[in-house]
């Protein structure tokens, strides 16, 4: 991994909220949850933004994986709204790459936090996941 990531580098990911990305779409039968942007989808968008920043650093056969997530969901976004998830690289601490993350919609900030990702050998990861390591 000869390339490095500059502190402050950012990536934005924009996505519409539809019926498949709501709290209601995650509800167990019998629960009534509102048709607003679901927290797991916000976190996933933030993770994808972090991963996009790391992608140019990846040697062939390596991937980035989530390691730590510290995120707060602050406000709802209704179906039809657009959400922008932003990741900003802040530091590398050993194997972890840390990012400040936030999400915004037309009304302002709806989420914020920090995410750490690690760069790992894809084959070793798959072997471990499949019980071969």
Q: What would you note in describing this structure?
A:
The structure is a single chain. With 133 residues, the protein is of the alpha+beta class. The chain has a single domain, classed as Thiol Ester Dehydrase, Chain A. 18% of the residues lie in helices and 41% in strands. The chain is built from 2 helices and 5 strands; from the N terminus they run E-H-E-E-E-E-H. A 5-stranded antiparallel beta sheet has the order 1-3-4-5-2. A hairpin with a 2-residue loop joins strand 3 and strand 4 (96-105). It is globular and about 40 Å long. 23% of the residues are buried. The mean pLDDT is 93.
Structure, briefly:
This protein has 133 residues and is an alpha+beta fold. The protein has helices spanning 39-54, 122-129; strands at 10-16, 62-73, 82-93, 96-105, 108-121. It is built from 2 helices and 5 strands.
The percent range for strand residues is 35-45%
Q: How does the overall form come out from the CA principal axes? A: globular
Low-confidence blocks of residues: none
N-to-C order of helices and strands: EHEEEEH
- Which structural class fits the helix and strand makeup? alpha+beta
Number of strands: 5
Adjacency order of strands in the biggest sheet: 1-3-4-5-2
Q: In the CATH hierarchy, what is the class?
A: Alpha Beta
Helix content: 10-25%
End-to-end distance: 24 Å
Radius of gyration: 16 Å
Largest sheet entry: 5 strands, antiparallel
CATH architecture: Roll
What is the CATH topology assignment? Thiol Ester Dehydrase, Chain A
Kindly state the mean pLDDT as a whole number? 93
